[in-house]
Structure formats: C-alpha cells, structure tokens
Amino acid sequence: MNIALPPTDNRTGAHVMAAALARHGVTDIFGQSLPSALILAAPHYGIRQVGYRTENGGAAMADAYARVSGRVPVVTAQNGPAATLLVPGLAEAFKASVPVVAIVQDVHRRFTDRNAFQELDHFALFAGVTKWIRRVADVARIDDYVDMAFTAAASGRPGPAVLMVPVDLLDERPELAPDAPRRQADLGTWPLDRMGADPARVAEAAAILARAERPVVIAGGGVHGSGAAAELTRLQDLGLPVATTVMGKGAVAETHPLSLGVVGYFMAPGGRGSHQRDLVTGADVVLLVGNRTNQNGTDSWQLYPPKARYIHIDIDGAEIGRNYEALRLKGDAKLTLTALADAMEGADLSRLEARRPGLESRVAEGKAGFERDLDTLVDMDAAPIRPERLMRDLDSVLPEDAIAVADASYASIWIANGLTARRAGQRFITPRGLAGLGWGLPFAIGAKAARPDVPVVCLSGDGGFGHVWSELETARRMRLPVTLIVLNNQILGYQKHAELSLFGDHTDVVHFTAVDHAAIARAVGCEGVRVERPEAFLPALEAALKSDTTTVIDVVTDERAHPPITSFMGKDALDY
C-alpha cells in the first residue's frame, strides 16, 4: 500500500497515534468521527473508520471483531454521553474476557475541572468494566500509552482498556528527532503472552484423568480465546468426552463420537444435551477448560457433580476454584492442553480405551434421542412458526466456515441448541458476558468486518432487534452484508415466560405492538422478507446467503415457543 504521509514537521499527535495503531495491526476503527483529528489522520496509515450509529453498537462490533479475528480492535468515542454508551459493550467484553482498546476523546487540558462541555469523571465511569484506564497528557508519550493499552487488553486474562486523549493533544506537533529510535513491536494479537501450567501439576492431572472411571471435559470460551480447538480435539481423541458451555460451542466438532454438545441451563426435553446429562452429573473427574463455572453454564450450580474431582485450566488464577475446588492448572489453554495431551499419551490409557466403545454408543443414543424429542415435542409445520423449525432449516444449509451470531436471551439458546458445530474451531458468537439485549446485529457487523470473506448469519428476537434497528444502515453504508433472522413473536419472550414460571402472571410491557421488520430493512436500502409460513423460510434463507446485500428475514413465530430451559419444566402457566 502506498501511503501518502504528511511531512514530518506537519505531523500532529493524531498522526503519531494513528501510526502507533497501524503498528499494532489496526486496519479498522469502530468510530463516529470522534476524535476527529485521529479519524482524519487514520486513512494515511491504512486505517478505515467503520462508522457505527450508536456507541453501544460500536463497542459490540469491536467485541465480535476481536473474537473472530484474533486481533485487538479499537473503538472510539467522545467524552461525556458518548463515553457512557460504551459502558455496556465494554462490560460484556470484560466479563467475556475479550480485549478491546477504547480511545475516548477528553476535554482540552486547559479546561480540566472547569465544567467544560460534557466533562465527566471517566475514570469512575469505566472503573468497573475495564482492566486499565489512563489519560495521556504529553504528546511525546503517545506511543508509550498506546502500547500500554494494547498490552493491558491482550495480556493475562484479556479485557477492555481505555485510553483518554485530550482533544488538544491530537493537534499538538511533537518534537520528533530525525534519528530517534522508532518502536517496532506489534502488540495487537491475543493472547499476547502465553504461559503454560506447572509441569508437575500437568503430570498429576494426566494421571488423574487416565485413572478416572467416568471423566468429562467441559470447555468454555477460553478455548476459542486461546485458539486451542485443535489441542482440545487431540485430548478428545484420546478418549475423553467433551461438552461445552454456550461460549465454548464449536471448541470441538459436535459430530465427534465423544462430543456431548452444550451443557448448562437448557437441558430439559428438547435440549441437545438432555440425554447426555447423566454423563455430566455422574462424572468422577471433571476437567474445566477456560470455563467460568457461572450460573447459566452450571444450571445454577446444580449440574456439575459435587463429589467429583476437578481439574481447572484457566489463564486467570482467580477463576480456578471459584465455585469448584480444583487442581490448579493456571496457564494458557493452548499450551496447557498440549502439555496435558503429551503427558496422557505417555500414561496407561487402557481404562479410557476399554470404556470408549460403550461410551460412544451411549453418546450416539443421546444424540438420536434429541432428534426424536424434537419430532415428538414440536410441530415443525406449525404456523405461527416454531423456532426449532427455523434452526433445523438453518442447520441444513449453513456452511462450515460461516459465522453464526445471536442476540441475548432466547436467541442465544436457539443458536446453541439448534445448530451443529461440524468442525473444531467453528464460531458461534453470543453475548454471554452480561448477555444484554441488542448485541446481535452489531456483533454480526463486527464479525463481518473481521471476516468479509465468509457468510455471517444473525438470529435476534424482535425485542433485541428493537435496540439496534439503526445499525442496518451501518451494514449497508459500510458494505458489510449480513443475514439477520428476526423472531417476531411480539413479546419479550424470556421475560414473559420467566414471570409466568415464577409468578403465574406477567407484567404488561412484555407485549409489543406489531412491527414489520422487513419494511424497516427496505426503508434503509437493505433487503427485507417477511415469512409467515414455515415452508417459505428456507428459500428466503438460501436467497439471503447468496446475496451481497444485508437481508432481514422477519419471521412470525409462536409466542408460546420457548427453549428447553430446565427451570421451566413442569410449569403449567407456560401452557397458555
């Protein structure tokens, strides 16, 4: 790329910052033209702006970009109200262990603490949702602070870092000596530094697993963050059955004879993992990999066996033993799984080998039982349409290299429960850090920006989509075409059904008036298709996957349909 740079004596702090970002491999900034000086300088360094409509959407785009690309993304915002809108997205990334660098414009240095326009205590604002926050006050220190931000975001347990930049700093001309050394380090990949667990503990873990009678592995999102899918598959091939959390879905191929699928809080009849539950609850040894053992993933801490022996691999030592006392393997999942597989290959695996044929038959029976349950419990030809029918059709045509994205709430469960990971490393992007509504479409746009060469399909409820309708225009303007399936049941589904389950009644505002989401799509220049009969969905989906235009498929779905959430079992109020 031939980049026309301004003469050295005309370069400003904005150029220094843009050059530093380019050095870290940044090619996209998710921003809304602020800080303007930085955005104007960025194209000179091969960086484009992906212009979001709302800051919360931009933060979500950056999050998904990081998950898919393995690079540390940058999102920008102005001080004050714009910065406050970054908080939800950074909170999701913080809880989900995803690195993001947020560059936030601050007031002029001379105006600090004088009630300048939109001045705010940003350190207090971001304190609970970031790993690191600093303000750069000297133009000569820009490289230092940019490097610190990327290091903080990408090292250890990844997460967001915020760099406050006074607006006047970007217009200041630094004194750049012609012979001054220039930094060369690229700190923009994650994990930035890999460390393996204590070899003695790895050997101990291998011996425990080899001797176990009923071992199981439960892999979380840390496997994807570490890029450790191949290493986990190697361990599975030695005879260990592997289940995943929702964030861990795709860490192994779910077609593998020892894959149990997603386990957690939706293992009631109709759940992909419903017939595999005993393999988890009956385990005598549980290996956790990059797994936070949070409430949903453990079905409110009722799923994992209380008397089992636990081994826990995690980059964050504070997560090991948080809810289940465990043999501590603190380290990067990729390195530690490699060492564990090496150690197991040198151990006596006769017990695992003897058990394997019967175990594979047991797992296969469970998978077949799931399919039978769907045919028995769900009318796939019903109208209004059942989400299970949509997932079955999507699963039949979704390419292995496609990225499936979901909004929060039911959409995440439909994706996790209804789609099949056909290869290790396949990506299913769901907001499970804080699981806020409205993440789906911006997640899809961020994923597409990271991987423009693959199809991106997003599932959202009408409640979640209502948060971010405006980002359809972003997808069109930025030429980032995605396929968005909206489950249009005119209710906040999880809210209504949870209230019915708990109280036998529901609040009034769970109901929406009718909205034609396909018409909204067409109004901003995207494709919009409304589907009211189940047989019309698959042709619409196939056409959308072939299109180079963002398409919204607005599907009228049954408001009574809910995923197989275990806490809903036996609640008569849901049979309305």
Can you put this structure into words, describing what you see?
This protein is of the alpha/beta class and 576 residues long. It has three domains: 159 residues, Rossmann fold (3-Layer(aba) Sandwich); 169 residues, TPP-binding domain (Rossmann fold, 3-Layer(aba) Sandwich), CATH 3.40.50.1220; 197 residues, Rossmann fold. The chain contains 20 helices and 18 strands. The strands form three sheets. It has a six-stranded parallel beta sheet, sandwiched between helices. The longest helix is centred in the middle third of the chain and has 28 residues. The radius of gyration is 25 Å and the shape is globular. The N and C termini lie far apart (62 Å). The mean pLDDT is 96. Keywords: Thiamine pyrophosphate. One of its GO terms (biological process) is isoleucine biosynthetic process. Belongs to the TPP enzyme family.
How many domain units?
A: 3
CATH topology of the largest domain: Rossmann fold
- Strand arrangement within the widest β-sheet reads 2-1-3-4-6-5
Mean pLDDT: 96
Oligomer: single chain
Terminal Cα separation, in Å? 62 Å
The CATH class of the largest domain is Alpha Beta
The coarse silhouette is globular
Give me the count of strands. 18
Number of helices: 20
Tell me about the biggest sheet? 6 strands, parallel
Q: Structural class of the helix and strand makeup?
A: alpha/beta
Family: Belongs to the TPP enzyme family.
InterPro entries: DHS-like_NAD/FAD-binding_dom, THDP-binding, Thiamin_PyroP_enz_cen_dom, Thiamin_PyroP_enz_TPP-bd_dom, TPP-bd_CS, TPP_enz, TPP_enzyme_TPP-bd
GO biological process, one term: L-valine biosynthetic process
Domain Thiamine pyrophosphate enzyme TPP-binding: 410-555
